[in-house]
Amino acid sequence: MPEQRFNRYGDELRPTTGVHGADISSQRMDALDAAAVAHAFSVFKAQKPGHAIDLGGGSGVQALRFAALGVPTLLIDQLPAQQVCWHGSQLERFLPLQHVSLDVRDLRPHHLPPAISLLYSQRFLHYLRFDEAVALLNLLGERLTPQARCFLSVSGMGSELSRGYPHRDRHLPERFAPLASAVAAHHGIAQPVCLYEPEDLVALTSAVQLQVVKLEVSPFGNVKGEFVRER
What we know:
231 residues; alpha/beta; Rossmann fold; 7-stranded mixed beta sheet; 5 helices; 7 strands; 23% helix; globular
């Protein structure tokens, strides 16, 4: 039986943890994915120091893309090694790839490389409360190199995830709730989320001294952008 195609892009509902929605990156690249890959290539070509971080990257397809360009890359996700896309392939012997399996709330400085030149996180930060997201980005931000780029996206208040969302009218610091039951079942998301307006992602990144380079809302209604650390 073919897997269920559940959105307008024809994506299949391939689970990650089973409660955090679908693995999209393994099925297609969007413009933010491509921009992050292009930046990874520029980092390698210019021989700039620093790692790429794939934060909450699920099976790690985007991390593999970065490493294939020669950029040392760390995947941070709670999936076990057996569910990472390169597991058992010996690619870690030939590519600069590493994986740390943990809940990002437990991330500590010793887990991180000394310098980060690229931070990438697609469709993940909304699984954290706003203050948790601020704390996490502050931790990572301490390792960002000058002119490091951050490529971030979150599920948006204008997306179909917001149908029946009980915290629609809550202020950002208080907004964290399960999706409406039908929406949660359709998307395979059983965890509470903080849905974002564009100005909310600006508030999050500004709180950790990231400056907006580009900000947009996808056709699906997710909020995404490119950012640099203010110096």
